[in-house]
Records
---
Amino acid sequence: MPLDFLKRKGSDSGQVPAEPPPVPSAALPEEVVAQEYSLKLSYAGKSSEGVRMQGGPKLVADLPSMLVGFAKAEIEVVEPLPIEFSQATPVIVRPSEAMQWLNAHHIHSPITRHALLVLESIDAIDLAFDTMVCSILDGEVDTSGYPDYNAVVGGVAAHWDEVSGDLIVRAVLGWGGKGARGDTDRIATKLLGNLLANILASQYSLGLTAVERPVPAAGRGGLVCAHCGFASGHERAFYCPKCGMRLLRG
């Protein structure tokens, strides 16, 4: 009996070996079909002129009252940040600074965090020396409690004058995110005027003044206030950013 199964295929059996499958062409098509992605974030804000106020023990405590009648949610006070949070910025591409920012503000409500994100991103406030009193003033919040892109947030920002020791108070508003609405700017302008009128109506008001914001030194190696224990924002400060008392130097 012949052992045909031992014969080589294609030799004695007469079978032709199968050809290998064709290699697909690596040539690119004339036009590449691409899927495009984009994300546009737009933040905007407004700030009024400063109002000089005569310093006093009850002055800072009265700042939240300036938002009464305008706030649509809880009014929160954000005090200047101590030195350990000197690098805190709401920028996710800088992980260490973003983590400082979250650690410093995690206790606040979503509305306040959103307001700080917007206002710090556009450099409308600087928590090295500003005290911020804020809430939502117009618009709605989503199911998570965060303001919509067209909601106007903010309130008043205050810092102590390095020369006179008076408190400089101004109205500061912000809005933005994924989208824009045409009438938001108009609404914010009206709110800004109303808030400024409220600030001027305070019993401590001394009138309008130019806003000269302090410039913190690069090292942020400031003094510690002997009255409230707050670490000053910068070494050249004469007054405590938190309580306004004169800093004692050795």
Note: The chain has a mean pLDDT of 83.
---
Amino acid sequence: MASRSLARLGGTLKTVAPFAQRFMNSVTSSVDDWMTAKLGEEFNERLSRVPVNLTSTGVDPFGLDPQWTKYTLATAALLHRHYFRSEVFGAENLPKDRILLVSNHSGQIPIDAVLIGASLFMDVEPPRFIRAMVEKWTQTLPFVSLFFSRVGQVVGVPENARRLLENEQALLVFPEGTRGVSKTFDKRYQLVDFGLGFMRLALETGTPIVPMAVIGGEEQYISIGTFDSLAKLLRMPVLPILPQLALPFGALPLPTRYRIYFGEPMRFAGDPDDDDAVIEEKVFVVKATIESMIHRGLKARKSIFF
């Protein structure tokens, strides 16, 4: 009896499978058509020019899946072009080989990283997939860890960063860490201390550093403080107090206009194992450059939203 039931089930699945496949193909085609209408044929053309080294499992050595990345990039590109209406400056400064992008961090959630990724794909020649270092605690979140892996983001440990640069990737780091992304509104565009790891990594791998300034993220969510005790209970790095969440549609970020600046590459020489005091001098130069870029960007903009 059981064997006959299993046989009937198997027959049913064989009958349904082609219909399911056609349905999925139809959905994928509809999504692709919609993306083309919103972003133009240029999106698919640029996607075809990004080299991806896939393994036999269909993903790259870090877990990047081209299909996941495609639809994630489409969403990022829509935010980049239509919601935040980002302006990009200095795209011609980016070398075509390995680079270490070093940026200020802000916004309570990492939309700045998403838009930097969109700009590197949509506004830079040749188009590239960005790689970013994510916090270790994200690996404890259901689905989130898988999602980050499938779109090419990796846990922020030196071994991963080194391997990515050895493979000529564009690696994004935020030396301020969570202290930067969680700044309150009164501290907007004031850089906190930079970590030293990115400089040791640049020295070890001979990678040029491209300083970046992102303007617009500090105003998308207005933070007035943090729930430190609750964040500790939830094992989160930080939990901001955001009054706008009490408003209708307050969970959405404000449509501030992003301005993304790529500076000229900076190259440093020295021993990556030097004392902290020596490394700090080099880090200070990068931080001062980014501060100057932020101040110029703030002075140049006429409005937060336009």
Note: Residues 80 and 279 are 35 Å apart (CA to CA).
---
Amino acid sequence: MFVDEATIYLRSGKGGNGCVSFRREKFVAAGGPDGGDGGRGGDIVMLAVSDVNTLSDFKFKRRFIAQNGQDGAGNKCFGKKGEDLVIRVPVGTVIREAESGLVIVDMAEEGQREVILSGGKGGKGNQHYATSTMQIPQYAQQGQEGLELTVRMDLKVLADVGLLGYPNAGKSTFLAHVSNARPKIADYPFTTLSPQLGVVEMSYGKTLVIADIPGLIDGAAEGVGLGHEFLKHLERTRVLIHLVDAAGVDGRDPVEDIIHINEELAKYSDSLAALPQVIGANKVDLPDAELFMEEIEEYCQENGLKLFKISAATGEGLRPLLDEVVRIRDHQDPAPVVFEREYFDQNEAQEQEPFTIVKTSAHEFEISGPAIDKMLGYTNLESEKGFDFFQKFMHKRGIIAKLEEMHVEEGDTIDVAGISFEYYR
């Protein structure tokens, strides 16, 4: 089954907790702290592979959770790192944040490996908190929680050339004649229900990868007739071969077909409408082809389009058309079309804006923010060492400086995540 879109939930592993432990050995009267660190949580990793060409594996399995890191143990034993969860996706898969649709990464190259979510850091054991004044620390750091994200995956085929046209324009026959592809061919609309790729071996050593896009209909840009699902596969191509039924077998007007499909391309994307395009007037081996040919030639001349009279069934005119497509392709930027990253993890934004301070009354201030919550999650404020860390955190993050800018006075109440302190310099 060909599936080119899927939405899945991802969560990286939680970091293991640090351990509170002390040496307990014979003849050691007062063993020091020896609590080990927790292991880091497993990452969520995407890997682009060429031996998979569909997203059907994600049709039923939609939750992917990496392994948690192990907790630390006594005798300075560190917890084991959680195993990374590697998710194999077809080359050409674009990973987007589900709600906003912003691009996280484009898996455009074979073997490309991208960490989508990093595992939580392991917590430090109590061995790290021993000082000359605090020789028996009774606390350790908790492991950080894993990150979670819902993503949408869109598979966009990798091809040099996009083959498009109305149903029964002869695209499948064309692809079967010029390449190694063997698409289903029959005389009824929508024979092709998924993109077909074919490789054309030219006699002078060059190759073309052609994608046969399922027949488009009016309204495709708005999603009519699965239009969005089909049009997106043209976004990486460099040249378009636009086939029309020159014989008007289904009672269609070939020129009107060209106009309508180009309108759908323009509605969907300016970049698609701007792609170089050649017109293949197909089925010229049929008697009625001459009835429309003059009209097609006139339209192409007026609009600067290269026209080739062809028969996909007999092979007539195919070589000159392919030669022209190779020439156009070779004059395009050789770099593959890659979608740039648009989405950035909220945790990165938190580093830029880690806290907010609100003056709730003349002598009361309230401090909040993700960085504050995270810090309090692994800090024991009831211990001397923990409270000292808390004070240093407030200075390092610029929170104290911001309070002073807001004219905080000694004795004012500072509320931090529901915990109240009196301010003293």
Note: Confidence is low (pLDDT under 50) at residues 183-192, 218-227, 346-353.
---
Amino acid sequence: MSSHEQQARTLVEALPYIQKFTGKTIVVKYGGNAMISDELRRAVMSDIILLSLVGIRVVVVHGGGPEISDMLKKIGHASKFVDGLRYTDETTMDIVQSILCGKVNKNLVAQLNRLGGQAIGLCGMDGQLFQAEQLDEKYGLVGKITGVNPEPVENALMTGYIPVVSTVAQGMDADTAYNINADTAAAKLAEALHAEKLILLTDVRGLLRDPHDEDTLIHVVHTYEVPELIAKGVVSGGMIPKMECCVDAIAGGVERVHILDGRIPHSILIELLSDQGIGTMLKKEEN
């Protein structure tokens, strides 16, 4: 088959998916290597712009862990982790807010705009998008989301923008901002927007039956299987909170959650607009 025929076939294959998702909302949680590598970042950005141009309402939720660690190192402030979560004292919170709501958010917005998208940046304090209370004193200023006001995001989508959201929340129990886990924030926002899909870009192939063997990818997981997978140790470490927030999102009305390998260029397009599923998809129903 010639490359022209192959390209045509790819486009024809994408058509029913475009028809199915146009007008629907998809939340993409963007982080990990896909944020650090220039080539992967450009691939993610162009995927998001393409989806937006075919009428899919795309919302980007991002983290920025490595950038935060770099800045803390620059000012000589040690990063400390408790149970895998960054311990956030006041100095760290200042840096988190500056980096996430400022540098990282605006760089992503600028890059989307440069590549021909229409992006606008929002942080969790804008319009009280994310409202939170302190999760536990042992983590410092880390918040647990108590409410989501999706209106600022909805307004941006309605006027044709791609909202780019950083995960710093407004404190409801104290006069402070809170650092929020980006997976959890993306899941809560997807629920509030009644999103069709939540996509979590990670640095793994998806959920592996054997973490040391990439060929043991589990393509589909039903939410009721998750407790057993945790008990068996198939889901372990940092994948446990990730899977739990996926289950919560589906319980909250999100149709499908995809855990995708952000190290594969254009993994979002391959997963959404082709017959070939490449990550792990979570869903509720049997069929």
Note: Residues 251 and 274 are 26 Å apart (CA to CA).
